[in-house]
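Schema walk-through. Below, the input block comes first and the output block second. Nothing else is stored per chain. Lengths vary across the set, and this one has 101 residues.
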Amino acid sequence: MAKGYWIARVTVTDPERYKGYTEANAAAFKKFGGRFLVRGGKSEAVIGEGRDRNVVIEFADYETALACFHSPEYQHAVEVRGDSAEVDLVVVEGYDGPQPS
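--- output ---
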């Protein structure tokens, strides 16, 4: 079964308030088994426009990734975040098919 992923691109506009969001979202990620693969770190937009921060979170499957997003725990974190950041977030299903050889 393919895993599920959150791919987020973020520009933080209020770092102090955003800290509250990162603390609040931990409950949802723990409950749904979310695992950070990318959390900030160096990046370079080689095509298109980049954002300050990129995040990739892995879940057991696509359905779990969506359930985490829609959970009361994560929606609370979104409320805490408020307008402290501009966020693009997609939930995607992973790929388990053949790879280039």
